[in-house]
Write a structure and sequence with these properties.
5 helices
């Protein structure tokens, strides 16, 4: 079983609203496109520093992109 099998649709939607590709976000956050794809697919649990970099790039908050609404 995957450690975090829940897709991050909030991050994908925020990225799309900014008109950014996975590659654009990856470059801005200092990671590979594959890492962004894996986060969006729920196959990778990013570090807090990476979450912050993504949030700053997408003009979002940690709660807005990474908080699980079910809790």
């Amino acid at each position: 079983m995957k450690p975090n099998s829940k897709k991050n649709v909030k991050m994908k939607a925020a990225r799309a609203l900014m008109g950014m590709s996975q590659e654009d976000l990856a470059k801005a956050a200092g990671v590979t496109r594959q890492t962004i794809g894996m986060i969006e697919a729920g196959d990778y649990n990013p570090t807090l520093n990476l979450c912050i970099a993504i949030c700053k790039t997408l003009n979002q908050t940690l709660d807005g992109l990474f908080w699980d609404d079910e809790n």
